[in-house]
Write a structure and sequence with these properties.
Elements: E1 5-10, H1 17-30, E2 34-37, H2 39-44, H3 53-59, E3 62-67, H4 69-78, E4 86-90, E5 100-101, H5 105-114, E6 118-130, E7 136-141, E8 144-149, E9 156-162, E10 165-172, E11 174-178, H6 186-189, E12 201-207, E13 217-220, E14 225-229, E15 236-240, E16 246-247, E17 253-267, H7 273-280
Parallel strand pairs: 1-2, 1-3, 3-4, 4-5
Antiparallel strand pairs: 6-7, 6-17, 8-11, 8-15, 9-10, 9-14, 11-12, 12-13, 14-17, 15-16
Helix pairs in contact: 1-5
Length: 288
């Protein structure tokens, strides 16, 4: 795709973000591509705009996000019904979801203007809490749903079902349910496997399990995963993509399933997922 209008959103706390915004705007204008800025991004660069992330999502053909993976997750959470393709430029520390580093901003503009990028349709999860009184809350997320303990340093018990069938009761610090995209985030730190982005599965990974036989479980992304706190005295919280935790009271159920929407994430056609993994995790070949 060759977008006619791009929305520009930056992590305003990153060094060099203001200059990068101005450079990108100049490059896009030279290429006759209209640029619209998110409000805080415009203020950072000394420009004017009152647009929210949701408004940019409705107006732009492509969202160019400057930051790291966390910035892209924050932008996704700010979008409403319309999810537009996201092209990430990394000024963060890791950047599994970004295409290029900030030093290659001219290459990024050329890739966008000429349409020389592909869109990887990343699965999102729909997460719903059903409380004891029957009330419900729901959200969507790209990376993961994490159920973890509060400030008290003790294990929590979590009962898990998959498609209505009991899996087990985990006795652990918590549990991560990750998409393939999220498999390189918290789930990986907790000992989970790396999943290829289009593998069509979810992974359930316990955090510091008390029982050594409790390990990651991979299920199809057509599954419904249900999780319930197992002890009324344990403070338990739900966190989605690193956002603010939501208290989960005893008697509530968290249901996690594939969302109807997907995120079209820009990727460079000559850079494979496994090349990105090798680069970001600093893997090198055997020295033997």
């Amino acid at each position: 795709m060759s977008p006619k209008t791009v929305g520009l959103i930056a992590h305003t706390g990153k060094p060099g973000a203001a200059e990068l915004v101005r450079q990108l705007q100049s490059e896009f204008e030279l290429a006759k591509v209209e640029v619209r800025l998110e409000k805080a991004t415009a203020e950072l660069a000394g420009l004017q705009s009152k647009r929210t992330v949701a408004q940019l999502g409705a107006e732009a053909d492509l969202l160019v996000v400057l930051g790291g993976d966390g910035t892209i997750l924050n932008v996704l959470s700010g979008l409403e019904d319309t999810i537009k393709p996201i092209f990430g430029i990394n000024i963060g520390s890791l950047g599994f979801l970004t295409c290029l580093n900030s030093s290659a901003y001219q290459e990024a503009v050329q890739s966008i203007v000429t349409g020389k990028f592909a869109l990887s349709e990343r699965v999102l999860i729909h997460v719903e809490i059903t409380r004891r009184d029957g009330t419900r809350q729901s959200w969507r997320a790209l990376n993961d749903a994490v159920i973890s303990r509060g400030e008290i340093s003790r294990l929590i018990r979590l009962r898990v079902r998959v498609n209505g069938a009991p899996l087990t009761e985990f006795n652990a610090d918590g549990l991560v349910v990750a998409t393939p995209t999220g498999s390189t985030a918290y789930s990986l730190s907790a000992g989970g496997p790396i999943l290829e982005p289009l593998s069509g599965v979810f992974v359930i990974t316990p955090i510091c399990p008390h029982v050594l036989t409790n390990r990651s479980v991979i299920v199809g992304d057509d599954s419904v995963i249900e999780i319930e706190p197992g002890d009324p005295d344990d403070p338990v919280y739900l966190t989605l993509d690193g956002r603010d935790p939501v208290p989960l009271d005893y008697g509530s159920t968290v249901a996690i399933r594939r969302a109807k929407e997907v995120l079209p994430l820009a990727v460079l056609p000559d850079l494979s997922f496994f090349s990105v993994v090798r680069q970001k995790l600093k893997w090198s070949g055997s020295t033997i």
